[in-house]
Fold:
Amino acid sequence: MGHLTTFISLVPRMATDDYVGFTFFIGTMAMMAASAFFFFSMNDFERKWKTSVLVSGLITFIAAVHYWYMRDYWIANLESPTFFRYVDWILTVPLMCVEFYLILKVAGAKKSLMAKLIFLSVIMLVTGYLGEAVYPESAQIWGLVSGIAYFAIVYEIWLGGAAKLAKAAGGSVQRAHKILCWFVLVGWAIYPIGYMAGTPGWYEGIFGGLSMDVFYNIADAINKIGFGLVIYSLALQQSKPKVA
Ligand SMILES: *C/C=C(C)/C=C/C=C(C)/C=C/C1=C(C)CCCC1(C)C
Structure:
């Protein structure tokens, strides 16, 4: 009996109102399932689109691995896994920038567009990390700098060079680009809300004490899986149907 009790106590106890833990578990499973879906479907497409769908799968796979760690970290410490969170983002967000480049290549997108978006995303994430983890007393200033980099990304894809390329590409590429733009404008805007819910500042308390990680987890599921599905359906439209 003694042995049995020891064994049982190794299984973590989860509170039924632990929404952070709940969304970490769901998030892990969703990212794993999405990765399997993208990886297994990738060979249905022509070479060019295969790469795009592969990148969709890499984004959700990298997230799945980090969610696995974050889930464990949360269970063990009931504390925000900030380190794993940002390692995940610093890998996956630049890959999302790569997706913009890959779909706009048909209209002649240059590597410099990709480099610009990646550069802005790194500024956005590094300053966000500094505000969240290193200098929380000046979280508002770091958050502001991060927000400016975020708006520069939004500008580039909605109105800047990427927008012009999307227009030149026309058809289903232009439509997919537009949907990705909406993801960045609306879906990505959930992150600064999570940041405000979890860092000190004038905005403290306006999010009703909802946990930062709940915002981040919901946003990740929407953005990573949704983004991937937009790419998947574009690849589907662009590939000739396979002869049965
Ligand atoms: C898959 C992960 C994604 C798409 C993560 C995106 C993260 C952001 C858009 C974060 C933005 C932030 C701000 C705009 C200001 C406050 C600090 C951040 C890093 C939360």
